[in-house]
Structures are given as C-alpha cells and as structure tokens.
Amino acid sequence: MLREGGLVAFPTETVYGLGANALDARAVARIYEAKQRALNDPLIVHIAAPEQLEQVADLSALSDLQRARLDALAGAFWPGPLTVVVWRKASVPANVSAGLDTLAVRFPSHPIAQALIRYAQCPIAAPSANRFGHVSPTTAQHVLDDLDGRIDLVLDGGATQIGLESTVVNLTTEPPQLLRPGGVTRAQVEAVLGVALAAPVQQNDESAMPAPGMLTRHYAPRARLVLCADEDALLAQHAFLKGQGELVGALLMRDHARAQATIHPHFVLGQTLEEVARNLYAGLRALDAQGVSVILAVRLPEVGVGEAIADRLRRASAR
Ligand code: AMP
Ligand code: MG
User: Fold this and answer.
1) Which atom of ligand 1 is nearest to the CA of 214?
2) pLDDT bracket for residue 216 (50, 70, 90)
3) Which of 7, 34, 218, 295 could tie 150 with a disulfide, CB 3.0–4.6 Å?
4) Is the CB of 102 under 6 A from ligand 1?
5) Which residues have CB under 8 Å from 137's CB, separation 6+?
6) Domains within the chain, CATH numbers bracketed
7) What is the pLDDT of residue 290?
8) pTM to 2 decimal places
9) How far is CA 159 from CA 19, 64, 116, 227, 240, in A?
C-alpha cells in the first residue's frame, strides 16, 4: 500500500504514526488531507537504519561540529524517541517539510515500525495519526476514532510504550535548539552534546512561525483542561465548577485517594512520570468520551520526561 501511494497507520514506541512514502509528493499530500493538518506543519521522516539518513538528508551541508553532534546523538539515542532536524535533500519532496529547507528525521525502535519501513523499501513520512490539533493516538482504536474512512490501513501493535511524541532537536542552529521536549529528556541530550539547548521562539502567528508545529493550542481534548497546583486545589476547583453546572472529570495520580473518592468520572494515570506519559493521551480521550465539559489535572514536576508532560498539558489547556 505504501509503495502504491497509500496511507498506513502504524505503532511506534512514542505514539501511532500516519505513514506515507516520503519520496512520493502525492502520497505525502494525502497525509495533510486525511489529518486536516495545517500545510505549514512539517512531518517527520522515519528510517530503518542510521545509514538511510543520507537518502533523505544533505549531510554535506552540516559543519564538522554539527556532523559530530549528529553522530553523537544517533549513537546515543537511535533507534529511539529522538528526532533530529537537518538539511533536506533536494530529491525529497518539499511538502514533507512544509516547504522548509530542513527535514526532521527519526529512526524508531518499535519492531513493527522498523519492519514496515524495511518492507516498504522507502523512508516513511509520518506525523501522529490523529486529526490535526487533537490528542495523539496511543492505540490502534484511537487512530480509528479519529481517521476511520480517511486512511487505508492501521497496523495494530497494542498500546505504545512511551505515550508522548519524540523529542525534536534542531542541529542546523548554533547552539542546537530543543524544538519539542519528548521521550528523550533535555538533560540526556545536553549530556551527550556537552552544550545547553536553546529554546525556539514561541509564536502563534502561523505566517511567521520559524519552526512550524509550535502552535500554542495543540494536543487538545474537546473538553476544557484546567491545571491545578495540587490535590487540594483540584478538589476546590471541582466543587466550584460543579456549582457552575459543569460536568467535571479529572486525571489523577494513584495516591490522590480523596479526589478518586469524590470526582466521577476520573482516570488514574499512575504514579511515576513515565506512567503519566504513557497514559496521558488515553486519559484525555477516555474523559472526552464520557462527555465531560471540563477536565482537571494536577501540575507535575518539570524534571525528566516531566518537561514533555508539562509542555503537552500547557498546549492542551491553551484556548
Ligand atoms: P507530529 O509527528 O504530528 O508530532 O509532528 C511532527 C513535528 O515535528 C512538527 O509538529 C514539528 O514540531 C516537528 N518538525 C518536523 N519537521 C521539522 C522541521 N523541519 N523544522 C522544525 N520542526 C520540525
Ligand atoms: Mg502530532
């Protein structure tokens, strides 16, 4: 199907991707159409071996220092949830990277993703397999809930392991930029590079976005998401919003015993940050499906994968 220009959703260790042959401009255009994705939001190209990078990226355009950084990151985190932004080869259709000269590339660790790329015999362009702006899918059912009838196939590999999107690092700038926190933590990347990552400029003006995919509101459920400082604040918000006639649900930690006894419906994310990352999107989707008008959640420490969790909660709660 991929070789014939079709759209195939598949599991990766982060979230489910919606794949098309990255070298087929028409197939890539279908991804944007199926997702109703903004045309200025670039895709990530998935490869099945580090050497395949040269098929899609112009590595000669990197400086020696940038090349050394690329090799260090690939050596440390590939296969895995790290995406690097390098220079796009002219032979790769421009719509893969929304017209940018740069290209985002990742070598996923999921065995089904790897096998799919190898059998297809082409690099696979794949954003998350959800409607644009919505919560990313971590199961095949999530993919169907958003895209059934708009795609050709979904490979069901069960629930994804990490549950949040990959970390995106731009290697074409000095110093490199952290474009999106994700499965690999900032500290892990900085330790390998030996340099502090710069923050990208945050903007919500689509015409002037320096790096697309940075919309303030993204990863969002239908219900309004309200972040609270702690369990007490969450219980107080619950009482207040119920008084206003809202249908209130909550995303809770395992030790939030009082909130679990008080707030229905609720969804228990787990206790560690890794568990929260894995279950966050399923929780947002489950509460949405129960028709709540507001979802309450507690702010978590922004350490390790907590930085990516906070980033997603911030964007999901933006109006
Ligand atoms: P998705 O796979 O739907 O999570 O989207 C891929 C994300 O990767 C985009 O939203 C951007 O944040 C990022 N990205 C992809 N390509 C580039 C690029 N060339 N420059 C900057 N960011 C990129
Ligand atoms: Mg996405």
Assistant:
1) 12
2) confident
3) 34
4) yes
5) 9, 15, 16, 128, 129, 130, 143, 145, 146, 281
6) 8-193 (3.90.870.10), 224-317 (3.40.50.11030)
7) 98
8) 0.96
9) 18, 40, 17, 26, 35
